[in-house]
Amino acid sequence: MFERYTEIARRTIFFARYEASQFGASTIAPEHLLLGLSREDKPLFARFLGDGIEPIETIRTRLEERLSTKGRIPIPTSVELPLSPEAKRVLHYAHDESDRLSDRHIGTEHMLLGLLRVEGSVAAEVLLELGLRSDAMREVLAQKIEAPRSHKSQANRPERRRRIILGVEKLLKEQLGLLHDARVGLVCNQASVNHNFHHVADLFHEHTAINLTALFGPQHGIRGDVQDNMVETAHALDRKTGLPIHSLYSETREPTEEMLKDVDIIVCDLQGVGCRIYTFVYTLANCMRAAKKFGKKVIACDRPNPIGGIQVAGTVLDPAFTSFVGQFPIASRHGMTVCELARMFNEHFGIDCDLECITMKGWSRELWYDETDGPWVLPSPNMPTIDTATVFCGSVHLEGTQMSEGRGTTRPFEILGAPYINADDFGNALNNLNLDGVYFRPCVFMPTFQKHAGKACGGVQIHVTERRVFEPVITGIAIVKTAYDLYRDDFRWKDPPYEYEHDRNPFDLISGTSKVREAIERGDDLASIQASWETPLAEFKALRERFLLY
């Protein structure tokens, strides 16, 4: 039934089920579909109702006012709720709208048109009150211009860029008083630059009103000079400023009392990549723990989530699989900025330090990094571009296998494979899955270092053709599962150690659970694997709403 539905449309139906269960409803009604839509595709509403969060909040408020919840008890999310006859009509109309517009897919835009056509429903009434009209919507949607397939990836590139002010720029220009008379320790790396690409360590050191006393470096070092993964960096003196650099990827990953003896405030300015499996946000969390322990203050400076702040996907970490690539039960693709995560770590997960977050100006959730004028510097040596970040939430899972994730190539995490793989067979199998927004180009490559260095590897390059519908996590799982299914005699999981864990399966640590690996080994289909994480994902999405700053 849902073969033509886009990934985000399928997620909308899943979250409609979640909304219905929270209202204690026995069926999924059009109103629940609208709540699912407003949760999953905010840019769609911004397109037709205007920018900003107000239309979304208005929809939810008006629906909640009209839906009777008196005496109703939420139903466990494990209970399967059927679609009501009216909701089935919405999906029937969505199919019709897709055909009318000559679209091959059924997306959230078609579902929204379907909701408008169910006259007399509360959902249609609310949408009409907000000024939404079917004819006007169809007129806009009919004006779409499809790029030729060979140039489709260019559609991922913005024509105009939004002017933003980074958190650290705002700190230096507007909130410098926060650092008055304080000894400052700075957590940063090579991506910690302003719009002029000046490094914040140099800006702080040269500023007459800032007493910078120490630098703290995350994984790969303060200037990003340590190329490979899981290689510790030594404590040192910074050549440019002469200040001590305390490595937080060494014998300790949390600042010690000795390291903080000349520090009153820890300022953290690190670029995240929108993925749970990335150590920088846990370096921040460890600094927050040390600040709580030793009576210091933390100031976190925000930067854009490079892959946008709307889409949320993947497994939610099981606390039994906590590690330095996953300290908290958050989603693989969390859709949050570093400061939003810091607030969640502090308030919900109980770090409870003296934390101040310096937000950005100009950034909004739908923006990818290359839709802003922000200065992109690779935050880690194998994260060179936004293209890398786009696929990373999925292809990072290959770190938990003996397959190459593309380290030692010019396209890490985009080029993937192993010596035993036939590139054409592998590419055809993956393309036959018909995953949204992606094409797998068969290729042969030879890594210059790391796994299979100097050996010809068959595999694929991931080409994202439409990044707003591309779902990286299920894509990464699909790559691993397909390799396991096709080459079971040769495929191997990676052996420990991995990120300071010496007795646990690395793939499980990356997935945040053993269930994905076990499902692959059992031969479960991809849809079942994805369905297995949808309930905790829905709960995480509800939780994250409390901590969003934009």
Could you give the topology of this structure?
Blueprint: H1 7-22, H2 30-40, H3 42-49, H4 54-66, H5 85-100, H6 108-117, H7 122-129, H8 134-142, H9 167-174, E1 183-187, H10 200-206, E2 211-217, E3 236-237, E4 244-247, E5 265-268, H11 280-294, E6 297-301, E7 313-316, E8 331-333, H12 338-348, E9 354-358, H13 386-395, E10 415-418, H14 423-431, E11 438-445, E12 457-464, H15 472-486, H16 506-511, H17 515-522, H18 526-531, H19 534-544
Parallel strand pairs: 1-2, 1-5, 2-4, 5-6, 6-9
Antiparallel strand pairs: 3-4, 7-8, 10-12, 11-12
Helix pairs in contact: 1-2, 2-4, 2-6, 4-7, 5-6, 6-8, 11-12, 13-15
Overview of the structural elements:
- This protein is an alpha/beta fold and 550 residues long.
- The protein folds into three domains: 138 residues, Double Clp-N motif (Orthogonal Bundle), CATH 1.10.1780; 212 residues, Uncharacterised protein PF07075, DUF1343 (Rossmann fold); 160 residues, Aspartate Aminotransferase, domain 1.
- Helices cover 36% and strands 11% of the residues.
- The protein is built from 19 helices and twelve strands.
- A hairpin with a 6-residue loop joins strand 3 and strand 4.
- Helix 2 runs antiparallel to helix 4 and helix 2 packs antiparallel against helix 6.
- The longest helix has 16 residues.
